[in-house]
Amino acid sequence: MSSKYILPLDYQGATLDLVGGKGISLMRMVNAGLPVPAGFLVTTDAYWHFVAENNLQAGIQEALKSVDSTDPAALELASRSIMKLFVDGTIPVKVAEAIFQTYTELPGETPAVAVRSSATAEDLPEASFAGQQDTYLNIRGAKAVLEATRRCWASLWTARAIGYRARQNISPERVALAVVVQLLIAADAAGILFTANPLNGRHDQMLVNASWGLGEAIVGGQVTPDSITIDKASQEVINRETVEKLVQTVQTSNGTDEVPVPEDLRLAAVLADEEAARLAELGGQIEELYSMPMDIEWVIAEGKFHIVQARPITALPDPEPPAPTEWQLPPGAYAAMRNNIVELMADPLTPLFRTLGLSAVNASWNRLLFAFFGKTGIMPEDPIIAVNEYAYYNGSVKIGPLLKVILDTRGVLKRMFSGAVERWTEDGRPQYVEIVQGWETKQWRALPTSELLGAVRQLTEAAVDAYGALVSGVLPAAWMSEAWFTFRYKFIKRKDDPSAPAYLMGFDSVPIRSEKALYDLAQWAQMQTSLTEYLLDTPTADLSDHPDRDQAPEGLDPDEWRNWRVSFQDYLKEYGHMIYNLDFGNPVPADDPAPVLETFKLFLSGEGINPHERQQAAVDRREGAIQALQARLKGRRLKSFQRNLARAQKYAPLREDGLADVGLSYPLLRKMLREIGARFVQGGTIARQDDVFWLTVAEVEDAAARLDHGKVLEDLSGLIPQRRGIWRATRRVAAPMMLPQIKLFGKDLMGLKSGGGGKDRSDTLKGVAASPGSVTARACVIQGPGDFSQMKAGDILVAPLTTPAWTPLFARASAIVTDVGGPLSHGSIVAREYGIPAVLGTSAATKRIQSGQTITVDGDSGRVTLR
Q: What average pLDDT score do residues 300-309 get?
């Protein structure tokens, strides 16, 4: 039927104001002959009649008049007030009769339908508004359809929707909501089709996400779907990632439910190549209909596809180039490795760090090498080089000078280990702190831009010099003393004795103290009920800027809020400098506290292990083991054990403290660079202040000089998307651990060693057995701090590397797997402190393993098995 309140899906000439974004899109596809499930639309006239009949507009305006779109608590309060008005309202008789009659005309006695919201400000090219309103599946009976319609109307006023519209500058007075009622397809599988690749921005590719059952499991994030990349022109599958799918959304007698996927389907591909090609053909028709890339929701039942929604893709990244396949060393270099300081640069380098940061690294490295070797010309002029944006240690030494160093090995070792601790504790760290504090007390924001850039250089070199003080003394001393203790311990160990690392656990270090401080803050906050509820209910992304707010959110005690805010700020001042990556293009906790807040909320919710108790248990194990061994050993064996143990215990905590403090200058250094970026934005050079990290040092120097002399700046904003695209493309490949690549039958031997080479790759990755034990669990691939929120308690952390700043994630992890690292790296030490298995240095874990995949980590054999 067709009326003021109801329109059929094949109606022609409907407007956005009448049927909303989703409704007008479905009508367009139905009239183009596309396979859309049958149904009808409840128009916005019905919504406005409901609002007018119940006199709701005044109440809506009253609830919204003083709402701050950045205050989640205020948005939630307004939402609850408005939605209560809808719940208490009465659906007008004429509207109810129209819906009732049209529903009964659908095929079947009480057909199952999907009731979906269709707002007048959604599914638009400039603002998709996806997921802001509600959908109700498997609704049966006219009475249930009426109630679902009322709930859809009310969902126009969720806190999310109110905040989104405010940020999009959409006036609340002009938004309304239509409702789509469609027959529910009993889907065997469902998913999303993107007619342009949203991961790399390529318009010549389509991307399909697919999972068993109804599509809500994908939309709601309960399942990691299969991913299929399709060539748009040929409709051939060019890449397929089939993952383990643990849950699916299915119809029940009174709605839907998430149930386990049958065992035989968990690892099975949802769509065959032929089915993916048919879906791609439909996607091509829809993209042609709209003349733009589309985000399409689909279902398949008994081999037939149905389209249930289509909206424009509003956040398509700039196209990225193909990922690099050739790894050519620069002229003059004949060998390179991903080790040493390079392990702190797991990702491709940002352009500014590659051109400014690496020069600081190389200058510092050359000074360090001269101090030890007593001569120049042994190592290349640039000890650290970049190949395809990745950092490599340049191993192209000159044989003649190297032989002289070998003959002077005793002198080199003497210079390296004489005063190893003092080189850090009395020279390296104090000098570093003095430089940082010196700049913190200066009015550096008043400096000319070129001088500010000079300060950035000095702070970068100070950080690398500090790392040099570590790597030239404390770090090798820690590695060698622990390795020697472990070797000698084998000769006195009995079957029931603990492993060697047990004797080195439980010591205080900066990462451990930071975790305890965060836990203590959570314990205090738990005693403030309202504060706890607010912190747990507020999304972390919204909470990140709250520590800078003086005014308490509505409903919170001002004193409690001030105490929390000051305490968290103090925490960031003390521990917010710990770096995730040596590349200063990456945030640190001090300027992006979201990852730390995730762990804080874990402790606040009562999850996570008490770090005080865990540390004390490690101390008790250590002291008990030492006492038992000392009681058993006699004479020279006892003295040897005590001497080797004392040496290893001396360096172990210093190593973690030192690595944690490498980033002492980074909060200030990044503030300076962002200040330069802000000046460049005002001058028209770049669009956003953080774009400064995507310029080269030569471009920054030129723009700084022009700015200081009042000259017009060149617009470089067009270069940024291209450079980001190159970075993303390069990040998708696993950098070879050694160059040149040594290949056998066309396959990289290092890749084969780690289980990462060739097309027919095994289901096992090999790495370093860093912490004992075996765990089978869900993998969570974390590329950087921006992904920390994806980690759930009990997941296996899979990462490029871990530094002290990653320590908060260990509180949730059941095991650790990394691309780079060894038995004495940070990840192995912290994993042993936590008593969880770890396999490090697999070289390709983050490329081979997918989030959601079940894997087994065997920390005794150094193997990771992929299911």
A: 94
